[in-house]
Structures are given as structure tokens and as C-alpha cells.
Amino acid sequence: MKSGIRAIDFMNHKVVTVTPDMTVREAAKLMNVHRVGGVPVCEGKELVGLLTERDIMMRVTVLNKLPSSLKVEQVMQSPLKATGEKFEDLSSLARKMSEHGISKIPIVDDGKLIGIVTNKDVVAHAPDLLDTFIERLAASDKGMAGHPAAFGQCETCGSHGHLHFKMDQFICDDCIN
User: Fold this and answer.
1) Which of 61, 65, 104, 143 has its CA 20 to 30 A from that of 130?
2) What is the dihedral of CA 109, 110, 112, 113, to 10 degrees?
3) Mean pLDDT across the chain
């Protein structure tokens, strides 16, 4: 299901970036100053990787390496697990985050970085996504007998099972009759 909310509508357009030839120490300082947990790595406007707090922890700190002696390109993720496109739907971006176990997706246009979407951005728009889901469900034939709409906890009796959307709530097969 598409939410109708596109990356370009909610992504962060002002992205802190680093270059591959910066030291990890310089990059970590920038991340700290801007209070971000990861930064895209760019050569000019071209996205070439991603550096996260976890990368620094796993490839520098745990190995007792000196951040000032390592370049970002030695520690960054490249190739990236996922990128997004400017008109990509919120639900698609959320699915990519879940599938790849990541919390940030750089948004690119023609290979050039134009923004970033984080798990915080997705959570901030989750109510809109849920509203869209409920509206579409109410307008469809799902939720009627023989067409379960979801699986979860019945809002009437509390039992778990297939649910139908009726009278603005999710109810089980037993309560629908």
C-alpha cells in the first residue's frame, strides 16, 4: 500500500556530509556538533558511502584504532545497503529500513545526494500513514465477512486473530456477527 507521502515531502534537505579523505576523528566531531548518528560520504555531490556511529564503534573503537589515523573511506559502508529516490513512497522507504536493518536512507537523484530519511522521520509520519490505511480500508470491501483486513487484537473482546474493520474499529470474526 502506498501512503502518498513522498521522500521529497519529508526528507531532511540540509544534510551534513563528509568526504572519504577526512579523518574519522574529523567526521565524528561533525556528527557530534550536528547531533547526528550518521553522515553520507560524498565526493562533490556524488554519494559514495555512509559513515555511522556503529561503523566507528565496530571498525575503530573496538579494534583500539586511532580515529585521527584513519580515513573515512577505510571505515564507511560502501556500497550502501539501500538508497531512496525523491518520489519514493514513505512505506517503501520504511520497508527498506526494516529489510536491511538500517536507520538512515540517503535520497539520491541521478546519483547525487539530495536528502536523507531517518527512522525518526518515518515515525513522525506514522500517524499519517495509519490514517491513510484506515481510510482506504473503510472504502474497500475488506473488513466484511470473508475478507479479513488485518491480524491482531480485537478492539471489542481482546482476542487475537483475523480482524475486520467495522464501525471505525478492528474486530474479530466472533464479534462481527
Assistant:
1) 104
2) 20
3) 86
| Nearest by Cα to 30 from 66, 72, 2 | 72
Element (H, E) at 170: strand 169-172
Give the type of residue at 9.
D
All domains in the chain, ordered by first residue = 7-124 (3.10.580.10), 140-176 (no CATH)
**Secondary structure percentages of the chain, helix, strand, coil, to 5:** 35, 30, 35
User: What's residue 45's pLDDT?
Assistant: 85
According to the model, what pLDDT value does residue 145 have? 47
User: CA distances (Å), 145 to each of 1, 105, 142, 157, 174, in order?
Assistant: 22, 40, 8, 17, 10
Greatest Cα pair distance in the chain? 69
Q: Are 160 and 152 in contact (CB under 8 A)?
A: yes
Convert the pLDDT of each residue in 140-152 to its tens digit: 554 444 555 676 7
Tell me the C-alpha distance between 140 and 81, whole Å: 35
Give me 153's grid cell. 487484537
- On whether the CB atoms of residues 70 and 24 are closer than 8 A, the answer is yes
Burial class (CB in 10 A: 0-12, 13-18, 19+), 21: exposed
Q: Please tell me the distance from the alpha carbon of residue 162 to that of residue 168, in angstroms, as a whole number.
A: 16
